[in-house]
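Batch 3, record 17
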Amino acid sequence: MSELPVADVLAAEPDEETTLPPSKGDSDLGGRTLEEVDPGDALVHVRGLKKHFPLRGGFLSRIQGHVKAVDGVTFWVGKGETLGLVGESGSGKSTTGRAILRLIEPTEGTVVFAGQDVTAMDAEDLQALRRQAQIIFQDPFASLNPRMTVGDAIREVLKVHGLARGEGADARVRELLRLVGLRPEYASRYPHEFSGGQRQRIGIARALSVEPEFIVCDEPVSALDVSVQAQVVNLLEELQQRLGLAFLFIAHDLSVVEHVSDRVAVMYLGRIVETADAEQLTRSPKHPYTRALLSAVPVPEPGRKRERIVLPGDVPSPIDPPSGCPFHPRCPHPLKDQDCARTVPPLAEKAPGQFAACIKEPAYVAPTGS
Amino acid sequence: MAAYVARRLLGAIPLVLGIATIIFFVVNLAPGDPTALYFNQNVPPEVLEQIRRNFGLDQPLLVRYWKWLTSFFTGDFGYSFAHSRPVADIILETLGPTLILAGCTLVLIFAAGIATGVIQAVRQHRPADRILSITSLFFYSMPSFWLGLMLMLLLSLKAHEWGLPFALPPTGMTSVDYEFLSFGGKLADRATHLVLPVLTLSLVMAAGIARYTRGQMLEVIHQDYIRTARAKGLPGRTVVLKHALRNSLLPVITLLGLYMPLLFSGSVFVEVIFSWPGMGRVIVDAIFQRDYPLVMATSFIFALVVVLGSLVADILYAVADPRIRYD
Amino acid sequence: MALLEVRDLRTYFHTEGGVAKAVDGVSFHVERGEVLGIVGESGCGKSVTSLSVMGLVSEPGRIEEGSSITYDGRELTTLSEKEMRGIRGNDIAMIFQEPMTSLNPVFPVGDQISEALRLHRGLKKKEARGRAIELLQLVGIPVPERRVDEYPHQLSGGMRQRVMIAMALANEPDVLIADEPTTALDVTIQAQILELLDELRERLGMAIVLITHDLGVVAEVCDRVVVMYAGQVVEEGPVGDIFGRPSHPYTQGLLAAVPRPDRREGTLAVIPGTVPPPTNWPTGCRFHDRCPYAWDLTREKMPPLFDLGGDHRSRCWLVEHPERREEVERTRPVFTGGAAQ
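Prediction for the assembled complex:
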């Protein structure tokens, strides 16, 4: 075994100083960028959102750099629409979800929710915002007080927001539990008495208690088994149709995101590298990272051995992201050259309504007059 | 690493200064003053006033504070009212015995505590664990002064009467005939004198460490990397003593810092009970005699040792755990 | 004779709350150079099965009388702990789900690999270190001579899983048990690890038992599949049969519940309910309370593993009563949408 050669493609972690072919001058920077698009009356409109965490160190604990968790993200979510946000760990997708609800303070950028600037809100406005925009987490158990019955947990939310009290609150709790497919009598039980899927339903019921218009779903099904995952996904879709909710659906599993979303945004190292209609994105991805991500999803169909694009190396650190295109050190694009390490690619239109941050993909220019 | 140590040392300076300040004000603002010692009907008030002036007690508090602080940090600890000797001399004389007592105790509590904890964890819920648990709990909940007296009674004063083959010296640091012993004899004599005070001081604290180590071990034993170690085919002893122990000891190191104050406050009464010629006994006498300079200096030395101990614990932790970043 | 053969394995946990029959009569075998997938949801007993093979089941778990695990003709269940240690990490090695917590944080990764070599091969410290560097290189870790002295926290999740694989391969085992090796990893890193495992199997000719809940992973790397539910094997067969002509309703439900990027349908198929607790398996067919086809027979009598021919077996009464399937499907759709509990 010892004399075996090095495992080929797997060992090829890119050099720190990638020696790329010289610039071929074929980079196409034309096309409309996502920033130039007017989304009309979107419910949530996020523009140039950044979240940098300071990194301290050294003798006097001075700020020595920043973790650029989210680095200039633009997207919008329409009423009753689902935007899927996919990315691997460290892509900044969860930070984005929290920053737009101001659960953490964004460093830069604006978030407009129903015509109001969230980034400029004071404590009172924020309280009002929490009635319209909610979040559910991967592990609802961690956010439920173990010594509080499920009913009490929901009643507390109703009380805080002055929505219902006493008998009214009890009736609302029963109604909410029924809505998420749980028996109303579960209200008197404690969180530990429930299975993972049931807990997620409770998390959803609690989020729904304030009758929000928008819910950030942060990896809501990642910890669940396949059959239970399907139950929760279906529940979310059903609730969306009945209540006209808008979702920002954050997940690392492209197949789930693709299934639930109308549109999808793919994140890599704090930036959106591609966004498009969900179907279009899966059918003809334009960014090499999206292609690799799609090809890496294992499909339960044994005969179909597709060409898997195996990316070399790991995701680089967001403290010191690569120059130019953040994906260039791992990029398998045949046209990759020195321009990729120099130019930060704009999120430009590559097909109608499909935007990708790659200078090596030809741009789409809308016919004049349209 | 050097930067980390330097930063921690610099950080200790305001702490030490603060401690010195608090000690000064607590002692000086307490009711009564050193002249009380000389107070009797035969001493005329003028003389008392003269004594007060000699000691500098007539000056405003803040002036005294400043004078004390500046001379203190230049190594001049002042003059003991009660002993009529420089405080520095008294400290030099008594610090050694106290450090010997505390050092031996420190080694013993960690050695015995960790060993007991490991045995208990490995034999969880078996008789050995149960017996050691009950024993630890017994010592843990024992008032130390009473334990000291009982040990003295059992192992020394009544030892022969109760049929023990030996009797330990009950008090002091050396025997009367110490000067006439050979070198080996001197060593043995000092060692036997150490047994009772060290044992008294150790039992309570060792029990605490044992309980903590047991808890840590039990937690670590269920970690994934222990399963990995077993999956390699390593024998159980290696898994426990190498993979589990090293990880369990990391939090135990922090106890070193936490136990320092206990160790020195404990040594105060142990020294009194066993007539150990250390600083603890000096402190008690000084307090009763309102010997301000001595009380302040000895309290400060104790505080300094405690601060240093915590510092050493933190640095040890950083050395032992590769995940701690030094910068 | 198969390289590793498990027959009627029963691993029970004797707790105060009753006897948890985590693994209850499981049989399977693996041949040299073959990849066997064991799939099922959490709580179905797949991890306990792998720990039983390694002899790593801890109190209050116990492998019951009558269970048999043979490796290369040797019965493992009756070996002494010392004899078993000689097999563990040497002939049969294992990698675990969480690369983040499966390596000891206080020792350099090189030492953790060397340990297995020094133990089973009696290598000297220096030789073992050299070999550890070779192994790191084999699993595709760049600059192995530097990485060998690094601590686990200095490596990414994917790198740590490679280290785990290097450690497991140290003594060139005949059987590698991989318990959810890619579940905690990102999808592009998962692709790397699966590629690596496949390549290593080809080069080293070892057998791999891959335990996973991800049917996609199984379809891509396994030759044969064992589907577990409630401590039992409910279906087994060649990978083509399991995915092409699944027989057991549980297998069918699992397959239908997976969202597919290439196939946008309406709602996902759902298996109602959850896996029951192992202290209280249902009577009859253990799947009956979640099964859309259940009828009296399935509630009363446990079905045997019916042979469907071509090494394909299914523990379902529908094999003997195909008319029931038609009857149910005529009246209502099966394994289609709904968020039902």
